Prior knowledge:
4-stranded antiparallel sheet, 2 helices, 4 strands
Amino acid sequence: DLEAFFFCFLCDEVHDLFENAIMAATTMPKEKRTVDLTLLMKGNQIALSVVNSYNTPLHLDEKGYPKTDKEGHGFGMVSIARFLDSHQAYKNFTQENGVVRFEAYFTVGDE
């Protein structure tokens, strides 16, 4: 059914975000490595937050998504952007004091 398809797709996007956060955190000294994933769902509203340590400055594209010039990288973020844009999500990427924070809020299905 469509709902099951949506949640499988959401799992792929959460996986990509989590993998990116883990890979970024591994660049930090062991004592400063942190990754926090929060996914909340109430009815048809979803809140997703991923916070991780990372000192290398992020470069954001014109829509506010992180971008990279490294060959073979960035495909997961393209998929995440497509998913969030198609659900008219509020999203925010910030980086401050060695911490990257991603937050997204969106609804699925009918109100």
